[in-house]
Design brief:
Oligomer: single chain
Strand content: under 5%
Structural class: mainly alpha
Radius of gyration: 34 Å
Order of helices and strands: HHHHH
Shape: rod-shaped
Number of helices: 5
Number of strands: 0
Largest sheet: none
Helix content: over 70%
Length: 187
């Protein structure tokens, strides 16, 4: 009977050790989840900041473009500005007027190109943000699934599959798992 008790004590000691190892793995997994969440939040904040900067720049350029277009159309109707414009134009000869018109048209075209470029950059940034968000969300979901899987499979020894998956190491697969893995297309 003493042999049975010592055997049970050894089994209890072994199970306590396995439990301690699983708890350490669980803590590491929680740390990994926290790290992924922090990375996601940091990336999302950075993307929001960049989008805000691009939107501000686009708004400023649109305002400048509208100001330029408004000055060419609206200034002619205002009295004091119209006299200033007439005074400036009277000082220029035909070549000067042509040069001034070319300069204004070039400025307008540059402003339009800048608005277009920033709009494209904003759209590209939105796409990049969505891709980053999707990949980080997927990674976070995978980590949570692994945590749940690790908590529910508390039999035998430490859950090495969970631990190795969190480290990015894929555990060796049995021939049965490997054939299932290959049949499912490697996913």
């Amino acid at each position: 009977m003493a042999g049975d008790v010592s055997q049970w004590l050894e089994e209890i000691k072994s199970l306590k050790q396995q439990l301690a190892e699983l708890q350490q793995e669980l803590q590491k997994a929680h740390g990994s989840t926290d790290r992924w969440r922090e990375l996601y939040n940091k990336e999302a904040q950075q993307r929001r900041s960049e989008v805000q900067q691009h939107q501000t720049a686009i708004a400023q350029l649109r305002s400048q473009l509208e100001d330029m277009q408004g000055k060419s159309a609206g200034d002619a109707s205002s009295g004091s500005t119209a006299s200033q414009l007439a005074s400036e134009l009277s000082q220029l000869d035909d070549e000067g007027l042509k040069a001034k018109l070319i300069e204004v048209l070039r400025d307008r075209d540059r402003a339009r190109q800048e608005v277009s470029r920033l709009s494209d950059a904003l759209e590209a940034e939105k796409v990049a943000h969505e891709q980053t968000r999707a990949s980080l969300t997927s990674a976070l979901g995978d980590t949570v699934e692994l945590l749940k899987k690790g908590q529910s499979s508390g039999k035998g020894g430490p859950n090495l599959d969970l631990f190795q998956s969190l480290k990015g190491i894929h555990p060796p697969t049995s021939p049965e798992k490997q054939s299932n893995h290959e049949e499912s297309g490697g996913n």
